[in-house]
Each structure stands twice: as C-alpha cells, then as structure tokens.
Amino acid sequence: MDMRKLVGDNCLRIRLKRGLTQEQLAERSGLTQQYLSDLERGKRNPTIVTIWEIAQALEVSHEELVRVLAE
Known about the structure:
Layout: H1 3-17, H2 22-29, H3 33-40, H4 48-58
Helix pairs in contact: 1-3, 1-4
C-alpha cells in the first residue's frame, strides 16, 4: 500500500466533504496550496507533524488521514 496515496486520497476526500478549497486548507494549516496539491496527488511524503497540522485544519483526528477505508 502506498501511504502517500492513502494520505492524499483521505485529505482530498475530507477536504471536499468539509467544502474547503485547497487555498482555504492552506490558510488554515499554514502549508502552501502547491504542497497540498502535491500531497493530494500522492507526490509528497508527509511527516507526522504535517499530518497533524492538516488534521487540525480539517478538524479530524490525525488517524483519519491514515485510515484505510473498506471498499
């Protein structure tokens, strides 16, 4: 399993569920829009600190960003 893809997919899913743009999430998290774009496409390898910051900005547990969803 590609953890980069998993985190990116979860970030995108939760962000859209919350009705946020990448720009809004960037502002909330302190990350750049470009970083979030790369993350959502599975091109970034986020640190645990980055996962924590994104989770806080999305108002979810950090575990939500690494959770494998049943298909």
